[in-house]
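ok trying this again, last paste got cut off
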Amino acid sequence: VFILFPSHDNMNYVEISTSKEIVGTLKNISEKGTHIKNIVIDDIQYVMGFEFMKRASEVGYTKFSQIGQNMFSILSAARTLRKDLKVFCLGHSEPVEDGGEIVGYKMKTIGKMLDNNINLEGLFTICLYTYVGEGKTGPEYSFLTNRFKKRPAKSPMGMFEETQIPNDLKYVSDKIDEYYS
């Protein structure tokens, strides 16, 4: 898992994969890295995936509960950081099926603990989904800002003028700053 955080040289990143390391890094940046305004965690699902693979030979469901708790600890910590620090958690979605029909999408997880007890998207103020459309020269990528074609994207009313915006985190960061200032 990479945590990217722009600084004076625009090249800062750290490779870490445990929830404890991630929470510690988030808190450290919040407290001591006041010049840092954006953090990107890429890819949040791999935190769960790496832990699962390290513990794959463990028998029983306890590991799934602990993996779920560890993910929850990262997202909970991110909600307590200083107000001018944005944390972007990149991840993957997966279809939600009912009787073989896709009825929606959700953030991909490991195990049912998070799926059954926590709506991960509900922990975020803004939840954008990538949308791939057909362009004249090939696929065109954008972010969805609100529910669209079964994707549960969300953002505060008035933050974005359109349901589809450029697939550009700088644009998103600027719009967040503009909305809250």
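PB: full thing came through this time. The chain is about 35% helix and 25% strand.
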